[in-house]
């Protein structure tokens, strides 16, 4: 009976350790937008963008600025879609254009 109790205790302890380590690992998205900026940034200061994860409750676009800051904007805004198109079509230094 004591051996069964020891085995059951060890199993519960192992289950608790695994649950804790999985919770600390963080399965969810890395960045989500909670609030959105309404004022467009200066285009020359934007260096890149990323779409937030589909796991986020609100869809968003993170614009990375030259300063390193990332600002959240609504992807439904017309100017955001236009800026994303410009960034996607921008020729990077060292690349050749297809003209």
TrEMBL record:
GO terms for cellular component: extracellular space. One of its GO terms (molecular function) is chemokine activity. SMART domains: SCY. This is C-C motif chemokine 3-like. Residues 29-87 form the Chemokine interleukin-8-like domain. It comes from Cynoglossus semilaevis. Residues 1-23 form the signal peptide. Keywords: Cytokine, Secreted, Signal. Its main location: secreted. The lineage of its organism: Eukaryota, Metazoa, Chordata, Craniata, Vertebrata. It is found in: Secreted.
